[in-house]
Task: structure prediction
Amino acid sequence: MTKTLLIKNIHTLVTMDAERREIRNASLLAQGQTVLKVGPSEQLPVHADEVLDLKGRFIVLPGLINTHHHFYQTLTRAVPGAQTCELFGWLKKLYPIWAHLDAHGVYVSAQMAAAELMLSGCTTSSDHLYLYPNDCTLDDAIRALNDIGMRFHASRGSMSVGESHGGLPPDALVETEAAILADSQRLIERHHDNTRHAMTRMTLAPCSPFSVSADLMRESAKLARCYPGVRLHTHLAESQTDIDYSLERFRMTPGQYAESLGWTGPDVWHAHCVRLDHAAIANFARTGTGIAHCPSSNMRLGSGIAPVRRMLSQGVRIGLGVDGAASNDGSNMLHETRLACMLARVGECDATAMDPRTALELATLGGAAVLGRDDIGRLEPGASADFIALDIDQRQFAGTAWDPVAALILAQPDAVDFSFINGRRVVDQRRLVTADLEVLVELTQAATAKLMNRS
Ligand SMILES: [Zn+2]
Result:
């Protein structure tokens, strides 16, 4: 018989269910990987195989969902020469360093990024690995996330148009399109799991319009759509240079280009969309196309402010992403959610542009919708047992008894006390359970030193 897990005496349980119920003095009962019941403590059992008594002090909410990252960039944070660049200059500075990445670096950086994400409340992450120099494979990142116990949407990224053919990346970092498609199919057939509560799903993700051909975009879409649940992802309309490139090379805006390739629809999500125009926003809303909004990265690279308020008003699906660690330069989902709330207000010069609960909704239900899942991002019977708990007797919550749920965003907590993924305790009293954080930091420093020596 699968073990039961009871979380009892929760101060406030944020369900993100259809009525967005926030239940005071609540309990949550799970069995194995599934939530069985949530409600007021007096309506739930008092015994289970495993019991965590939160003593009336903790907020429990669905685990946060990160919809855009490049884990490998954790090895190249704060690189001199790339600290004040816009997108294209930043990429050109970093490509030669990334050319020395190896399989061990992929594994270690993926675990380091996952550890930071998990400690900051993230329970599901997407990652976009789009360069494969030396012995790198996406299998290394999948193994890393499997070992650390995080729910993972792995994107097989790719670059096929090098500098000599008008693309941005150096020729040495691009692959042939035949090899990309063959490896994409291999990865789907080896790792993709489309069942409910799946821990690993696959996405095909040619990197960006300025690093792959239109043909690879079309062929990738065709291949992904042969397999239920395999999604499509890329970077789109990130900055003005990105728009200029699209107009000059394709004589189309990024929105028109995506549509012309069949890259709109409920199985597609695009990162950034900072410069998406009115027509494309309307089209994304109509077709169910999703967006990964990455406020830190957009600020870091000076890309601009995505029109999130306008997109939400029109019904576009939006999730949040920390983006690669070289343009953030962290992987903290609580911070990112707060920044989404603040940046929307800056963008509109209007404090009503986003309230704290909407920001939380984007980080949970929004991310789940963008990744095409209805089993995560909410806590209700039948959902995956992915949830986090924060102690409201800690310093960031002092004085927030007025509304501790809003304080999750406004008062700047930066770490969770407990996290459960698929019913398994992965953070316990602020400590990562599934990996040795000190060792992981050492390994990451060593992998970075190796890249520095080679560059
Ligand atoms: Zn990115």
Summary: Residues 68, 70, 235, 271, 323-324 surround zinc ion (CB under 6 Å). Residues 437-454 form the longest helix (18 residues). The two ends are 54 Å apart (CA to CA).
